[in-house]
Design brief:
By secondary structure, this protein is α+β, with helices and mostly antiparallel strands. It contains 2 helices and 8 strands. Strands 1-2-3-4-5-6-7-8 form an 8-stranded antiparallel beta barrel. The longest helix has 29 residues. It starts with a helix and ends with a strand.
Amino acid sequence: MSGARKRDLMVTAAGCSVRAMRLLPALIVMLAPTSPALAQFPPPGAYTCASGAGKAEGVLTLFVGGDYMWDGADASMGTGQMSSAGNTVEAITGLLKDNKWVGRFEEDAGSVKFAFETMAGPIGCE
């Protein structure tokens, strides 16, 4: 292959990379509004929790940044952190992690409802 021909291939390959790099920001701008929120976190506040059978379980208080405080109806208390992705939440440290709290939340007109699966069974908070 001649030197001129090799150079033509390198320019063509570089041109493709430049075009792809120009398209990437445009694709991100176009797709961003349609993608689900990946870092959405439920609003801070105190949420009253009950078992699936309606038995009072306690109060879950969420703070900015994912910290929580649990004040159980059975006198259990604890603090820890929750992680959130989209509308799913999971206790990643503390008492609720030990009890495997994993669930989701819904926000409707300022009202927030949680549905957790735990070692003790389903628990809802609002």
